[in-house]
TrEMBL record:
UniProt-recorded name of the protein: Thioredoxin-like fold domain-containing protein
A matching Pfam family: Thioredoxin_4
Start and end residues of each Thioredoxin-like fold domain: 50-220
Family (UniProt): Belongs to the thioredoxin family. DsbA subfamily.
Alphabetized SUPFAM superfamilies for the sequence: Thioredoxin-like (SSF52833)
Transmembrane segments: 7-26
Alphabetic keyword roster: Disulfide bond, Membrane, Oxidoreductase, Redox-active center, Signal, Transmembrane, Transmembrane helix
GO molecular function, one term: oxidoreductase activity
Length: 245
């Protein structure tokens, strides 16, 4: 079965950048150069992970840094799936099952705002809420993040603004939506600086697409599969295993 086409979206849905194989690439980016196995050379030690949301054991032997935008459809495909027109099995659940839950790796989430302002402010708004939820409710963060991507609609389609996130927060047990909203307002400047710093860091490292995942000394770009797949260059299992050796 040909699996290549499912990593592309029609040109008509492009709003702010170019859709490449399973990722959104932004104008002016300086993309890293992939090797023959689909992974490019980079080093996790060059990534600032201090204070960033993560799942897994803090001292896990391997760190994965996941660069994403809450408005990016391929990021949703990577995390939870269910994107109309994209028959992509999300890789993150298998990464968690096989490596995070077993203590072999941790996943650090680096939220960027490539889609703000070109597609509206929602990317930045969601990134601010992400910072707040991590600060106030770290044990609920991943549940919240999963709910955010599950609720994602088309880019700039409405979900991701403050009102919609407040309603989502109110539906999650253990999160005080009003408290988060107050915190976002009070710390908007600080959280904006952090989100913009992540975006600038990505560009400095040559990361010009979302999703991009730095794994040890390699990087995978796009909503690539967990297992080797015919017609697809690169997979998460093989790169993770090579970094654990």
């Amino acid at each position: 079965m040909d699996t290549t086409n499912k990593y592309f979206l029609p040109v008509s849905v492009v709003l702010a950048g170019l859709f490449i194989a399973g990722a959104v690439m932004w104008n002016g980016s300086r993309p890293v150069t992939p090797g023959p196995d689909g992974a490019a050379s980079i080093d996790i030690s060059d990534v600032n992970i201090e204070g960033e949301p993560f799942i897994g054991q803090p001292n896990a032997p391997l760190t994965l840094a996941f660069w994403s935008d809450f408005q990016c459809p391929f990021c949703k495909a990577f995390e939870v799936g269910g994107v109309p027109g994209l028959n992509i099995v999300p890789a993150l659940p298998d990464i968690i099952k096989n490596y995070v839950d077993t203590g072999k790796a941790k996943v650090v989430f680096k939220d960027v705002v490539f889609l703000t302002p070109r597609a509206g402010p929602d990317s930045l708004t969601a990134a601010l809420y992400s910072r707040s939820v991590w600060k106030l409710y770290p044990d609920k963060y991943f549940e919240w993040r999963t709910a955010m991507f599950t609720a994602q609609d088309e880019e700039g389609g409405g979900f991701g603004n403050a009102d919609s996130i407040d309603k989502l927060n109110a539906s999650i047990a253990g999160i005080d939506a009003a408290k988060v909203a107050v915190d976002v307002t009070a710390n908007a400047e600080l959280y904006t600086q952090a989100a913009n710093a992540n975006t600038a860091e990505a560009q400095k490292l040559g990361i010009g697409s979302t999703p991009s995942v730095v794994i040890g000394t390699q990087i995978l770009v796009g909503a690539l599969p967990f297992l080797p797949t015919q017609g697809v260059d690169g997979n998460f299992r093989d790169v993770i295993e090579s970094e654990l050796k």
